[in-house]
Amino acid sequence: MNTILLGPPGAGKGTLAAMLKDNFGLLHISTGDLLRDEMKGGTELGKTIKKYVESGELVPDQVVIAMIEKKLSEKNSGSKGYMLDGFPRTTVQAQDLDKILTKIGQPIDYALYMEASLPVILQRLTGRRVCRKCGAIVHIKNRPSKVAGVCDVCGGELYQRPDDTEETIKNRMHVYAEKTAPIVDYYAKQGKLETLSGDEETEDLLKIVAKIFNDGQRTDKIKGSTGH
Ligand code: AP5
To answer: Which one, of 86, 178, 83, 172, lies nearest residue 121 by Cα?
Structure first.
């Protein structure tokens, strides 16, 4: 079950990905996480990446494509497929991804597109906290940890991402509309698109996705255009 997760910042891609990983044994590959790991390492590349990420701009295509190619080429014996979260984000990335997947013989089965409204996105991202140690995602109101500031999973410290300020979120939304939204049509044309409402509860979304995976049933019958 090779899947990509598309959708604006804060639609809930990372949260759903964690549940799909646990329930379907998919390998979760998030370019946001890969980039943050590189930043943590303090390398020259990490310093360059930081400027893009913290201002809400996209990191250059060649940097993220190289990261994804490396990750997908590694042996992942235990998993039942991959799940790409936050990649592709431009038409160039989508086209290059297809070339890589053809080379490794692992085509995409589903492109899950999570729609979400702006007020929901702002509420979610300004209240999001992430564990420094294990990367678990919580929300101070929607999905709070038992003890404020402490991760339920590993006891690590919960922090607010520097790009989760209102000003940077607005720029991320602008960049999304300009550069990423057009690739929704790219996958509609391939007949792989499934549109989900990101405004729904994650548990409900999980049931909908389970049905799509189990039945091989497509909910998005219109191929060629999504109106986005
Ligand atoms: P990335 O880390 O990918 O961020 P993003 O796409 O902006 O997405 P988010 O992680 O902000 O949101 P999400 O949809 O995963 O929501 P989440 O599940 O956390 O990228 C960061 C940056 O890296 C980019 O801006 C760019 O600079 C760079 N980058 C990454 N990939 C790149 C690429 N391919 N090319 C170039 N540059 C790239 O949920 C949000 C909150 O809502 C959480 O608090 C959660 O608890 C809560 N929540 C989630 N779902 C629900 C629900 N159903 N109900 C209630 N609350 C919910």
So the answer is: 172
